[in-house]
Amino acid sequence: xxxxxxxxxxxxxxxxxxxxxxxxxxxxxxxxxxxxxxxxxxxxxxxxxxxxxxxxxxxxxxxxxxxxxxxxx
Length: 73
Prior knowledge:
This protein is mainly alpha-helical. Helices cover 68% and strands 0% of the residues. The protein has helices spanning 10-20, 25-32, 36-50, 55-70. Helix 1 (10-20) crosses helix 3 (36-50) and helix 3 crosses helix 4 (55-70). The two termini are 22 Å apart.
């Protein structure tokens, strides 16, 4: 589970993790054995939950929250 402060489903977390490792939506769909449209639906949900309008904004927000949690004293 991603330690991001956001509440994502397991499938959404998988999409995020695979995307952060450099996979394209098509590659994510193949790896997860789901349709490309399903991956894009997950991205819509992820963007909504994280408050980002782009993939880069979402990943940046998740990275910042995770870093903040990592360095809390």
